Amino acid sequence: MKIITQSLIVTLCLSSTLLATEAYNPIAYGVKARGMSGTGVAYLHGAESSLINPALVAYTKKSEVALGFTYMQGGADYKTDSSSLDFDMESTLLPFVVMNQKIGENYNIGFSLTTLSSLNGSTSTSPTNNVVISDISKTRISIPFAYTIANFSVGLSGIMERQGFTIVNMPSSPNTGYGFDLGLAYNLDAIGLSVGLDYKSKINHTMKNFDNTSGEITDMEVNTASEIALGIAWEILDSGHAIAFDYKALKGSEIFKIEGAADIELEDINIFAVGYEYKSDNWSARTGYRYVSNLYDIDRAQEITVYVPYNLESHFSIGGSYKLSSTLSADAAMTYAISNKTYTDSGSFDIDLTQASLALGLTYHY
């Protein structure tokens, strides 16, 4: 059985902080939801909702196309008792396009193409002559279908996902995986209250990993974890105000497996998000906050940070939309992550992370 040595783990740690960003597991896949810190399991964002809970698009009044991108940038400082490294994350663009087509009053079908992650990071600032490079990319195609009867709706998306992953001197073969997204929603129009439930299946990505140092080839899994999410939203009638709350449980233990290192597992993750929106006739404003618990297993921080593909602990967001015409609107959102530090129980390991993003998009109704 092949063994990952301690020296390799330490080497990987030097690049792992670049993965501990939003680029692997985005706050949201659409501009509107990003402005509300990802809330959208029960709150309608038009065609973009098919990326969060496909059941919600059943409540759209018109067919719609939305497209846009997220620009992301960040960095990290890594310190031990004897050394330090400053990481610069290369700026990242995450484009998306999503369409929802109404078929009569009760049926909707759509299409989406999203880049969920595309991260390149390197450093050579401290100490000199140290360069660490990481790359992760994930592109997803989904075909959502939604049906509604009375106030109840159900949605199902088939998913095809292409992923590549490289860390330090260990390139891996790209892999295509398949999964599904099943959503339910119930809308109480009379009081403006909506509830939603969504389940996204695990998408398996087993890749051949080549170690340039040892020449060994191993099987490595960097899977898209399954997740279940519950949401509730309240649009205060005739006021323009709305508030939404989401809870998501992400199965972190499903993500990373390396041949010969089966003991290394990530903690399961709990995500809480609250979002607010105010709508007027021609514009809307949004804001939100997102908190991720169990970000690290502190007792195993130096080992676990090798494989951390999660968000930072806290994100704030702000965003809005403006109607350019009766059929076209422009959308924008900004997020900022509060820097957080992680230590081993001995106090010898310190990571300081930063991240910010800007998302822009257009929405067309027809």
Gist of the model:
This protein is mainly beta. Helices cover 5% and strands 56% of the residues.
Explained architecture:
The protein has one domain (6-365): Beta Barrel (Porin). It is 5% helix and 56% strand. It is built from three helices and 19 strands. A 14-stranded antiparallel β-barrel has the order 1-2-3-4-5-7-8-11-12-14-15-16-17-19. Strands 9-10-13 form a three-stranded antiparallel β-sheet, with no helix packed on it. The longest helix is centred in the first third of the chain and has 11 residues, at 6-16.
Q: What's the N-to-C terminus distance? A: 59 Å
Assign an overall shape. Answer: globular
Q: What top-tier CATH class fits best? A: Mainly Beta
Percentage of residues in DSSP E strands? over 45%
Corresponding CATH architecture: Beta Barrel
Q: Major sheet: size, sense and barrel closure? A: 14 strands, antiparallel, barrel
Mean pLDDT equals 80
Helical coverage, percent range: under 10%
- Please compute the radius of gyration using only Cα atoms: 21 Å
Q: Which secondary-structure class do the elements indicate?
A: mainly beta
